[in-house]
Amino acid sequence: MKKKSTNNTGEDTPEPPDGGWGWFVVLGAHVAQALSLGILTSCGPIIVEWTRFFNTNLAVTSWVFSLTALMGAIVSKFLKI
Question: What would the pLDDT profile of 3-34 be if each residue is shown by its tens digit?
């Protein structure tokens, strides 16, 4: 049986099954998603410079970002995210 604690009204409340860390997990997942999607969507200025540096056209260079998004979708299916 889970340990119970007493709240302000004197009633016993069951302890959360995650030990009270659930909101930190939600916050961490939100930050990870914001950073990864932010990096992918902010690559517009970088792609112009890469086309100049690698002396290629925009269609070839854009495959880098397309494959990154594709790999994220494939991996998430295996990890059941």
Answer: 556 666 767 777 777 777 888 988 998 998 88
Is the whole model's pTM more than 0.70, yes or no? no
Alpha-carbon distance values, 5 to 12, 18, 19, 24, 58 (Å): 5, 15, 12, 21, 61
In sign, the C-alpha dihedral spanning 54, 56, 60, 61 is positive
Token digits for 29?
């997942």
DSSP the chain: ---EEE-TTS-EEEPPTTTT-HHHHHHHHHHHHHHHHHHHHT-HHHHHHHHHHTT--HHHHTHHHHHHHHHHHHHHHHHT-
User: Where do the structural domains in the chain lie, given as residue ranges?
Assistant: 19-79
